[in-house]
Amino acid sequence: MTRLNCQTTNSASQLQHEEQLGFWRKLAFGVFYTLSLLPFRVLYCISDIAYLLVYRLLRYRREIVRKNLSTAFPDKNEAEIAHIERRFYHWFCDYTLEAIKLLSISDTELKHRFTIQNSQEIIECFDNGQSVAAILGHYCNWEWLSCVGMELPKESRCGLVYHPLSNHFFDELFRRIRSSQANGVPIPKQDTLRYLLAYKQQGINSFFGYISDQTPKWENIHLWLPFLNHDTPVFTGSERLMRKLNNAVYYVEMSRPRRGYYTCTYHLITKMPNELPEYEITRRFFELLEQTIRRNPEYYLWSHNRWKRTHEEYNKRMEGKQA
Q: In the chain, where are the structural domains located?
């Protein structure tokens, strides 16, 4: 009887705890949505203040950013690196608030601020019965790319492949942001193949976006490439999916003509993925991404510890497995 009472008490306590968490999550979502209702000029004033806090006071990941920039651009002097660093933090604060703005922005304002070039090429692939894979990096505001479905046929599906965040609240927040626009379907990366096959079986044309400059886990490293003056481990799972589904593959290049405005341009890599040598799609992507970054380096995600895995340590791990 005592054990039953304890179990009942624990269940009630757990239920109460979950209700409290639910309340605070709803409140937090309400705050973010209210923030998204503010006009851009107000959001950018907030961003300017956030920059001072994040960069000057909190010094958020300053060591990682400085190290990444210095090793990526050894030809630049300290003043040039510091200039890029400051511009990066300014943009990073803008990016965060621009992403939140997607929760409530109107289609009219979004189309005014987000220009998509040569969408007709994607539609032509659909007309020929071929779905499309878009490969991109953490450059400019990749969250706004969830809006590319506005330019595509309503019956198509725009799959937004993402890595689930460990923080449940922010994972839910960004899933809401990414699904706020037409045709957008946020898809955890482990479920990508299931969605792709389901759309194919249903005869639905799909446009899947893959952020492919993630740092892979040790067991997922199959290829090392030169990238921004580093020997870089890369994830090749996206390329395998593109080949399996025979997708047309495009590199998505983002640019920022001015604050609050972005341009998305599709660059064809191949319409016949299985005719290219293994890993060639991945190689071409990283070459194109590096060219984009070198033109305007401040818009890349330098705060990520991208080169924490070294080839030397990888070789030691492989030798240890073989021993």
A: 17-99, 109-322
Structure confidence at residue 154 as a pLDDT band (50, 70, 90): confident
Q: How far apart are CA 62 and CA 10, in angstroms?
A: 44
CA of 87: how far to CAs of 230, 254, 297, in Å?
Answer: 22, 17, 9
What tokens appear for 160 in the block? 């937004």
Q: Please give the structure tokens belonging to residue 268.
A: 């064809």
At 96, give phi and psi (nearest 5°).
-60, -45
* pLDDT (tens digit per residue) in 282-292: 999 999 999 99
Q: How far apart are CA 266 and CA 117, in angstroms?
A: 7
Half-sphere exposure for 254 (CA within 13 Å, toward CB): 27
Q: In what order do the strands lie in the sheet with 132-136?
A: 114-117, 261-270, 248-258, 132-136, 206-211, 157-162, 184-188
Q: Which two structure tokens, joined as six digits, stand for 319?
A: 């030798």
Pick from 242, 119, 272, 129: nearest CA to 183: 119
Q: What is the pLDDT of residues 22-44, one digit of tens each?
A: 666 788 888 889 999 999 999 99
Q: pTM for this one?
A: 0.88
The per-residue b/e assignment along 199-236, b for 16 or more CB within 10 angstroms, e otherwise, is: beeeeebbbbbbbbbbbeeeeebbbebebbebebbbbb
Mean predicted confidence (pLDDT) in 89-118: 92
